[in-house]
């Protein structure tokens, strides 16, 4: 058995690793959970696009529009519609400026409602709205702390299996601990899997030393070893129009025996342009399992590669397990549920830190600040994410920089909630901000509009309404039904 | 920490103990993980690209173990020494193996 002292030091480490970047982990987890439904969120946020899209036709339309509307681009990165998403997600540059737009699958032009859609939550999940590479490095650090918190949490946990069936409600610290344990343990394999695989998605940035040790400065060999079907070559400076892309797509579909999922076009309009195609990722867990490259100017096949090296397949599978692009509907909901449980485990852990100390003695100044930071940080993150779809529906369509304005609304709402949480006493801050969050979710659903009959829109509205109702009930239960709040310190002195 | 029955004393001895373990658990862990990835990338009997990815995955799997060990070791100096010895050994093998050609 584990020594009692060892268990104590693991509990200590569990607390501090959880506390240190707990708010950032909460944001990452919540945004990641929502990202499971990234294409569906994008569809909710672009209700005007309803045409079912043909992937190859959409790529052709997109490249035609991009050829006519970009100048001096170094790359177009296109994701084809795949039945879940119904637009071409395009990242491209023109005259030195970078764009991220959803392109209409038929016209090829950006859709009317300029929004990041689900991409906002996806990017927030691992970039935290912080410039490259710092956001990703911070996310890597947070993920590592999460992994340590999981491992130490398991070691510190005394009655691992017995406690699964234990819940003692309305008993202060005990209840929080039971809830935190249940959330952590019930989907523990998922928590370990998602944290570990998440950490590995950023490995080339956070731990590049294996690459350095094996390849040194030879990045060209490194890239061609990692993705043998991709071709990287410099622009020639000579202009040449892009060859018709439809035949390349057809040839790739035959080679992949699957529809094309992505098309990357490097140096379009240059004689040395390269078109690299990847299959859809819904056939297997492994991420990007094959690729095919064509000469952009002539349309001739340069390289084709199907990954069958065991080591690379293992990494792709680890990556694919995190991305969950393979997941059919039920599995996707399980990912969502697992993510939600981890998010709540983090939040309850943050609260537990305070509850535990409050029951023993009056809180220190630091912990009082932390108590309020919990109110503002946890509620602020959620309020910002709920304000985002509201901005999506309310900002005028013709507005310049509309997509950026939506993000600004989300960030300023989060900042305002954070400030409110810091200023107000927690006893008022909690119910108030929870109420605001409930109203935001309900408002977003109403603006959906609530009578929308499209399955994706209706499901989104239903989820928003369910969240609003759950929060409203929680506020009602705490504030109205159980009026006398538990006295903070030392109330267990009275003999039985 | 692990030493006494009452871990609530907050003297400099306790703080130094924690600080040294944190050093071993953060910088030390990163060093061990980085050198493990480097060594495995050079010695695993696979193609270069596979050795790199496999080695990096293994390095990430052992990293949380190193952190936990830094706080479980009998004393802070032992934690630091353990991490240091591991780093030296991994780095030594990586250096002896040399860059693959």
What does this structure look like?
- The complex is a heterodimer of chains A (496) and B (101).
- With 496 residues, chain A is of the alpha+beta class.
- Chain A has two domains: 269 residues, no CATH class; 191 residues, no CATH class.
- A seven-stranded antiparallel β-sheet of chain A has the order 3-2-1-4-5-6-7.
- In chain A, strand 1 and strand 2 form a beta hairpin.
- In chain A, helix 2 runs antiparallel to helix 5, helix 15 packs antiparallel against helix 16 and helix 15 packs parallel to helix 17.
- The longest helix of chain A is centred in the C-terminal third of the chain and has 32 residues.
- The C terminus of chain A is likely disordered.
- With 101 residues, chain B is mainly alpha-helical.
- Chain B has one domain.
- Chain B has three helices and no strands.
- In chain B, helix 1 runs antiparallel to helix 2.
- Chain B is elongated and about 55 Å long.
- The N terminus of chain B is likely disordered.
- The interface between A and B is large, with 37 and 38 residues.
In brief:
The complex is a heterodimer of chains A (496) and B (101). With 496 residues, chain A is an alpha+beta fold. Helix content of chain A is 59%, strand content 9%.
Secondary structure tally: strands of chain A = 7
Radius of gyration of chain A: 25 Å
Biggest sheet of chain A: strands, sense, closure?
A: 7 strands, antiparallel
* Total number of helices of chain A: 18
Mean pLDDT of chain B: 90
Layout of secondary structure:
The complex is a heterodimer of chains A (496) and B (101).
Chain A: H1 4-20, H2 22-35, H3 38-45, H4 55-69, E1 75-79, E2 88-94, E3 97-103, H5 118-127, H6 134-156, H7 173-186, H8 188-201, H9 203-206, H10 209-215, H11 219-226, H12 246-256, E4 260-266, E5 274-279, E6 290-295, E7 301-306, H13 310-323, H14 329-360, H15 365-394, H16 402-423, H17 426-447, H18 455-481
Chain B: H1 12-43, H2 48-72, H3 76-97
């Amino acid at each position: 058995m584990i020594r009692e002292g060892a268990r104590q030091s693991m509990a200590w480490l569990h607390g501090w690793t959880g506390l240190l970047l707990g708010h950032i982990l909460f944001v990452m987890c919540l945004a990641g959970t929502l990202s499971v439904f990234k294409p569906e969120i994008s569809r909710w946020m672009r209700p005007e696009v309803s045409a079912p899209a043909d992937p190859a036709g959409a790529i052709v339309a997109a490249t035609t529009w991009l050829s006519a509307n970009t100048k001096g681009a170094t790359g177009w990165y296109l994701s084809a519609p795949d039945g879940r998403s119904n637009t071409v997600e395009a990242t491209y540059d023109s005259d030195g400026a970078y764009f991220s737009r959803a392109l209409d699958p038929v016209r090829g032009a950006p859709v009317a409602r300029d929004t990041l859609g689900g991409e906002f939550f996806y990017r927030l999940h691992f970039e935290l709205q912080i410039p490259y590479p710092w956001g990703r490095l911070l996310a890597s650090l947070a993920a590592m702390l999460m992994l340590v918190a999981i491992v130490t949490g398991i070691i510190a946990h005394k009655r691992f299996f017995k406690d699964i069936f234990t819940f003692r409600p309305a008993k202060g610290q005990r209840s929080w601990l039971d809830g935190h344990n249940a959330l952590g343990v019930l989907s523990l394999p998922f928590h370990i899997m998602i944290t570990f695989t998440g950490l590995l998605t950023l490995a080339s940035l956070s731990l590049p030393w294996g690459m350095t040790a094996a390849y040194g400065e030879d990045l060209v060999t490194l890239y061609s070893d990692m993705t043998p079907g991709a071709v990287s070559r410099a622009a020639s400076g000579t202009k040449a129009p892009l060859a018709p892309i439809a035949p390349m797509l057809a040839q790739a579909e035959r080679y992949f025996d699957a529809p094309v999922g992505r098309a990357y076009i490097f140096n379009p309009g240059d004689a040395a342009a390269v078109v690299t195609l990847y299959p859809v990722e819904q056939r297997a867990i492994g991420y990007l399992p094959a690729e095919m490259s064509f000469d952009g100017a002539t349309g001739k096949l340069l390289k084709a590669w199907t990954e069958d090296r065991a080591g690379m397949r293992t990494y792709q599978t680890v990556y694919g397990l995190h991305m969950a692009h393979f997941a059919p509907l039920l599995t996707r909901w399980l990912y969502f549920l697992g993510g939600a449980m981890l998010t709540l485990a983090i939040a309850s852990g943050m609260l537990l830190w305070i509850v535990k100390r409050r029951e023993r003695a009056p809180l220190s100044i630091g912990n009082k600040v932390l108590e309020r930071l919990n109110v503002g940080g946890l509620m602020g993150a959620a309020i910002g994410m709920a304000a985002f779809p509201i901005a999506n529906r309310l900002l005028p369509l013709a507005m310049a920089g509309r997509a950026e304005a939506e993000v600004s609304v989300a960030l300023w709402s989060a900042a305002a909630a954070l400030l409110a949480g810091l200023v107000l006493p927690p006893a008022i801050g909690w119910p108030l901000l929870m109420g605001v969050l409930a109203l935001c979710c309900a408002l977003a659903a109403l603006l959906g509009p609530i009578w929308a009959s499209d399955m994706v829109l209706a499901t989104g509205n239903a989820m928003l309404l369910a969240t609003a109702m759950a929060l409203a009930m929680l506020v009602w239960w705490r504030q109205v039904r159980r009026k006398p709040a538990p006295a903070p310190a030392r109330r267990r002195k009275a003999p039985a | 920490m692990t030493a006494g029955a009452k871990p609530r004393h907050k003297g400099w001895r306790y703080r130094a103990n924690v600080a040294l373990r944190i050093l071993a658990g953060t910088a030390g862990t990163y060093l061990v993980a980085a050198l493990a990835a480097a060594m495995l990338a050079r010695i695993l009997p696979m193609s270069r690209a596979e050795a790199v990815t496999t080695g990096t995955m293994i390095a990430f799997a052992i990293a949380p173990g190193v952190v936990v060990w830094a706080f479980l070791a009998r004393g802070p100096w032992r934690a630091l020494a353990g991490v240091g010895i591991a780093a030296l050994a991994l780095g030594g093998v990586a250096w002896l193996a040399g860059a693959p050609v």
